[in-house]
Specification:
By secondary structure, the protein is an all-alpha fold. It contains 14 helices and no strands. Helices cover 79% and strands 0% of the residues. α6 runs antiparallel to α7. The two termini are 32 Å apart. This is PrsW family intramembrane metalloprotease. It comes from Nocardioides bigeumensis.
């Protein structure tokens, strides 16, 4: 079994340090850009409108992430990265690049922006893959983190677009409520999923990389995901250059089918994840790591809620024990699955021992509906 090496803690510290520094720098830069983009009133209105699709989009990704929820702090970090680091990095790279390689506005929109923006967003997923690989269990995790980065990016970008539309500093016309409404409908109602959708291809690539033993797949999948992200982003941006007909054509013939396909794929992966978790926990049970009778209460989402409701009636200590037990057992199941596949993280042994310690500590205080609390 792989053992925990010195690289594990160092990698976690390096990830936290790099992401924190870049987030602070990016936040300062983007807040300054936003502050200079219009009057306080118009910026406040733009921020409120840009925030409207954020909640529903985040809720969709949290729904996908219910079997083995990712750390809320890391999901929030993905939002921050997309909102501040990726946006600031994009502005800097395109600004500096434009000084050396002058290109037309249409070429910048259709080519440069997709290349730079998807690279800036994808860097967060690559940092996870490089330094926090243990947080990635497969494709679904990659999709969830990609979604968070895309949502954060779209939120800040929408503030700038909405403010520019209202102030009349973009190409939509003289500004005012009519221009603001048009921009809001297109960006926040018709296509709020655009940036999460583009970056989802990188998330799928990273998820494949972490769950496969083939070096070619581990190296090529993220790169292919990036190429697909750029291609769909470029097609979307280019559609706006062809007027309303071009936009509607790309939206109906490309974006909507792609969006539906990714949703179907995500739901399929989620269902497969359930089957995988059952198989892994059954193998763990045969090895004596946890009772087989507990598995349905750990895997089925409805049964999980029923078990927690049952524990809540027994008191706060029972509810806390149930939550801790379910979380530790599910984490163990995903970790054991990676071990069985031959792709365990470097700290597999240490993490597995920590989950088992937690399981054994709280199991005596856990009872499921129809069961008595085990003897302590």
């Amino acid at each position: 079994m792989p053992t925990l090496g010195a690289a594990g803690p160092r990698n976690s510290i390096a990830f936290t340090l790099v992401v924190t520094v870049l987030s602070v720098v990016g936040a300062v830069g983007m807040l300054l850009v936003i502050a200079l983009s219009g009057a306080p009133g118009s910026l406040a209105l733009a921020t409120v409108l840009a925030a409207l699709p954020v909640g529903p989009l985040v809720a969709c990704y949290l729904w996908l992430d219910r079997y083995e929820p990712e750390p809320k702090s890391l999901l929030a970090t993905g939002l921050v990265w997309g909102g501040f680091v990726a946006t600031a990095g994009t502005l800097v790279i395109q600004g500096v690049g434009g000084l050396f390689v002058p290109i037309s506005e249409s070429a910048s929109l259709a080519i440069a922006a997709p290349v730079v923006e998807e690279a800036a967003k994808g860097c967060f997923l690559l940092l996870l893959l490089w330094w926090r690989r243990h947080e990635l269990d497969g494709i679904l995790d990659g999709l969830v983190y990609a979604g968070m980065v895309g949502i954060g990016f779209a939120f800040v970008e929408n503030i700038l677009y909405l403010a520019a539309a209202y102030n009349g500093t973009d190409a939509t016309g003289p500004g005012g409520a009519e221009a603001l409404t048009g921009t809001f409908v297109i960006r926040c109602l018709v296509s709020p999923f655009a940036h999460p959708l583009f970056t989802s291809f990188i998330g799928i690539g990273v998820g494949l990389a972490v769950s496969r033993k083939s070096l070619a797949v581990r190296m090529g999948a993220p790169l292919l995901g990036y190429v697909l992200a750029v291609a769909t982003h470029a097609a979307w941006n280019a559609s706006t250059l062809g007027g309303l007909d071009g936009f509607v054509g790309v939206y109906v013939l490309l974006m909507t089918p792609t969006f539906v396909a990714v949703i179907v794929f995500a739901v399929f992966v989620r269902r497969r994840e359930r089957r995988m978790l059952v198989a892994a926990l059954e193998d763990a049970s045969r090895r004596g790591l946890l009772p087989a009778s507990d598995i349905p209460w750990l895997v089925d989402l409805g049964a999980r809620r029923t078990a927690r409701a049952h524990a809540r009636r027994e008191g706060a200590q029972a509810l806390e024990a149930m939550r801790d037990y379910q979380q530790a057992a599910v984490e163990l199941g995903f970790l054991h699955h990676r071990y069985l596949r031959g792709t365990p993280p470097v700290d597999y042994a240490a993490r597995g021992a920590a989950y088992l310690t937690e399981i054994r500590a709280v199991r005596p205080y856990v009872s499921f509906p129809g069961q008595l609390v085990p003897a302590r």
